């Protein structure tokens, strides 16, 4: 199918977007807009950028409400047609995008959109580039690994309820698939964070099953060039304690069934 829409607004200016919906909404299939964290390698600080990752969800909800108000009988799809940390990442080169910073920021943006937003599509700008890229000459940069794990390991999954006591410090994502759980924890701060996890709906694997189960732990910190992967014993308790380094992301892939 061919779908028509626009405007790929460089900034989600609500006055312009409302005008577009009023003028073109009856004939359009979607509304699109761009949003980057910054245009600088050092302003604002990365700590500030991490506290703004919810803006994507907020803007998407504002646009959805405008759509309901102006065209209540025609819900338009919505797309972020460009997003990334820095739209001027090549001048000078912003190395954060190809390090762990990029994975931490990207995961937080996607997490906010999944749990709080009203979006149908988000296009990361862009995949193959020395400055922006998620695809490296020898594999994947950390942001690329985030996309890889979310797309390949959650394809048949459902988003589960996940709450953090303080989302300004730590965000959490939980996805259940037929074969495993994905649990993502991101530290949004420049200080280490110790997290007390309560896995309320998790069915612990019995001790006798530990020899046939393994949990994958994918971790990356701000200055890392790649994720690290190690195999852990599958949790036998619903209560877990995790320590997250500053500006870091930990993704756990936990088997659900015996024998997997």
Layout of strands and helices, then pairs:
Elements lengths: L4 E5 L4 H11 L5 E9 L7 H5 L4 H16 L6 E10 L13 H17 L4 E4 L10 E2 L2 E2 L1 H12 L4 E2 L10 E7 L3 E8 L5 E6 L16 E7 L6 E5 L6 E6 L3 E8 L5
Parallel strand pairs: 1-2, 2-3, 3-4
Antiparallel strand pairs: 5-6, 7-8, 8-9, 9-14, 10-13, 11-12, 11-14
Helix pairs in contact: 1-3, 3-4, 4-5
Characterise this structure.
This protein has helices at residues 14-24, 46-50, 55-70, 100-116, 142-153; strands at residues 5-9, 30-38, 77-86, 121-124, 135-136, 139-140, 158-159, 170-176, 180-187, 193-198, 215-221, 228-232, 239-244, 248-255. By secondary structure, the chain is an alpha+beta fold. The strands form 4 sheets. It has a 6-stranded antiparallel beta sheet, covered by helices on one side. α1 (14-24) packs parallel to α3, α3 (55-70) packs parallel to α4 (100-116) and α4 (100-116) runs parallel beside α5 (142-153). The protein is globular, with a radius of gyration of 20 Å. 35% of the residues are buried.
């Amino acid at each position: 199918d061919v779908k028509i829409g626009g405007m790929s607004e460089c900034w989600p200016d609500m006055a312009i977007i409302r005008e577009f919906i009023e003028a073109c909404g009856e004939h359009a299939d979607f509304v699109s807009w761009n949003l980057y964290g910054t245009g600088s390698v050092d302003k604002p600080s990365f700590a500030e950028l991490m506290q703004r990752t919810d803006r994507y969800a907020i803007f998407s909800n504002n646009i959805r409400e405008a759509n309901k108000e102006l065209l209540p009988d025609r819900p338009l799809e919505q797309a972020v047609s460009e997003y990334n940390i820095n739209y001027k990442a090549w001048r000078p080169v912003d190395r954060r995008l190809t390090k762990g910073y990029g994975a931490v920021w990207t995961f937080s943006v996607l997490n906010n959109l999944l749990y709080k937003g009203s979006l149908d599509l988000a296009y990361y700008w862009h995949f193959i580039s020395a400055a922006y890229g998620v695809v490296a000459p020898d594999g994947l940069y950390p942001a690329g690994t985030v996309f890889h794990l979310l797309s390949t390991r959650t394809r048949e999954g459902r988003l589960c309820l996940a709450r953090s006591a303080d989302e300004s410090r730590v965000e959490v994502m939980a996805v259940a698939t037929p074969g495993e759980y994905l649990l993502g924890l991101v530290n949004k701060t420049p200080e280490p964070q110790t997290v007390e996890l309560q896995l309320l709906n998790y069915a612990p694997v019995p001790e006798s099953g530990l020899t046939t189960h393994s949990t994958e732990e994918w971790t990356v910190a701000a200055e890392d060039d790649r994720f690290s992967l190690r195999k852990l014993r599958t949790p036998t308790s619903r209560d877990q304690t995790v320590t997250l380094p500053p500006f870091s992301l930990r993704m756990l892939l936990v088997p659900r069934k015996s024998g997997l």
